[in-house]
Write a structure and sequence with these properties.
The chain is an alpha+beta fold and about 650 residues long. Helices cover about 35% and strands about 20% of the residues. It has 21 helices and 26 strands. Strands 7-8-9-10-6-5-4-11-12-13-15-14 form a 12-stranded antiparallel sheet, sandwiched between helices. A 5-stranded mixed sheet has the order 24-19-22-25-26. The longest helix is centred in the C-terminal third of the chain and has 34 residues.
Amino acid sequence: MRLFKNWMPLLLVFVVGLVGCGASDDDADTGGGGTDTQTSDDGGNNTTDGDGNTANGTAETAASGLESALVYLNEKMLMATIVHPKRFTQSDLFQALPDELDLSQFEKSTGLEMGRIDRILVVGFEPNPKQIEEMQAQLDGKEIEREGFEWSREDFDPNGKTDEEIEAFEEDQRRKLEEAERAWEMKRFKEPAGAGDIAYVIWLDTPVDEAEYVAARETRWSKAEPFTVGSTEGHKLGDHAVVVSDDGKTIMGGRLSAVEDFLVAKQGSGSLYEAFAKVDDSFDALMMTDLSDQEMFKKVAKKELVEENAGGLPPVFAGMPDAAMKVGMVTARVDVSEKGTLATVRIAASDEAGTAEVKKQLDGALEFGKSMIGFLPLPPDGPPELAEGKQLVTKAVTGITTKVEGNEVVVTLPHPDGTVAFVEKMGPQIVEMQKQAERSKYRMNLKQVGLAFHNYHDVFDNLPAAVSFANENDEPLLSWRIAVLNYLEQPFLYDEFELDEPWDSDHNKTLLEDMPEVFESPGVTKPGMTTLMMFTGPGTPNAGLGRPEEEGSTKRLGLRFRDFTDGLSNTVVAVYAAPDKAVPWTKPVDLVIDPKDPLACVGEIPEGGLQVLVMDGSVQTLPADVAADLFKNLVQHNDGNPVTIP
């Protein structure tokens, strides 16, 4: 089901799913070698070569609006979504959003300003044989074979062995397992399984510079390389592809195999093409998916809805699994910029009986939802606008209607009056919600680091030292952040470092730009910089460089859990310091505690308090006015003054 879940919420895919790879259609040519002729069944919008393949470039110059998107659709696609971002941004609802709302994530994801984009087409391809094999294995309860994951447990007789010998053997086995896991992660990264192939086309109002755009999409792990399909030239970025049209106003992209399908496969065909061709271009967003012959989808749906939830579904949903088996084409249309109807969903069924069953189940679910809407709780200390919001939701839900048109069940969601005024009133709360979401992101980052610490300790029976590597003269080389990369799903990045060189050596400093997102910090915009730091200084777990891993080794080891005599839940181990305290993430520098002024190293504490990582793996928020002595006791692990976090 995981693969299908990647495809269904396509109204969000265009925001977060675009990985900045693209492709063009202006010069597309399948290279079939035949003589080009105009087809007549589509109004002359497609150019077909002697092998029956479509050259999209000619189609784009001859078509406009929706037609220019239709020529990309073919029978290999499971779903497609077309979005008009400008209709969203120019709508009254969008204009009612507060100016302080941060939309930078969209630009970061796409490399494009939202205002430049005229429309976007996103398509998801049917599962390939490998994906079907994986889904079938999951249905059968089998573990997917992990190629390259090999390790063997040696025969070991504990009888007559000392505790030290047994412990040494178990530690050796843990390390072997860790190395095998890391080898498998490396293989998986270099040879992706290809799950959920998605590709897209973006049409722009203003052109992009191809060289600049491609360079901005590059990372250390996906340097641009040229590729050619027929006479179309583009750029490979890892297993993705980018092609920008000659005029810079069209970008196509996605997994390399998907882009090749765009350029080579017979376009303007299949059930999605036929369905899209019947609609006009007046929508804000339109998604279609054809589940008619998706047997694997129906198998997964039956397992998840029936077998795994046997007895757990309310009676009103009892017939839903059988109805799902009869679903064919599903169309969802969103019209934020229009008044009256916000969204319309059309669900086609296999036959008249299937249509009746789908409607019956939908009506039952809607009645259940309408009966429950009145029980939605409102927080006692919430803003008064929430009550108005509940009224709007109630209007919308109670206003949902269903009807049968031919073999389709049509579900209509109204656009309640007063929605725009409500959004304007909620402006400050919307901004605060975004800030809370950002705080939640950083909180999760801290939790990931805490989990990495615990997993590291499970393998090595100690924590990483603040200085993970030193040279023979005990001069610090690299930060603890390097040591935990294997436990943050970054084994490939760990292997890039020269561990016997300092953080700013000619080689290692080139890795600054590859800082994992987990080390991103609030208020820090400069690439490669972080404020996520541990504490060093008198009485802290990282008072020194740490003990050597073994004689002659420059790798440094931190404390064991048993060394935290004040208790793991009473010791703060890491924190987000103020933005002006930011350091290069690979540099072995952390916050040095001054016993006389322990809070000074953190810098200015935000109004919302100080987010800290506790050694037990939890994340807490210290109040902005936390007492200095209390803070000092929290960052010292064995001072005999265990204190409870307020």
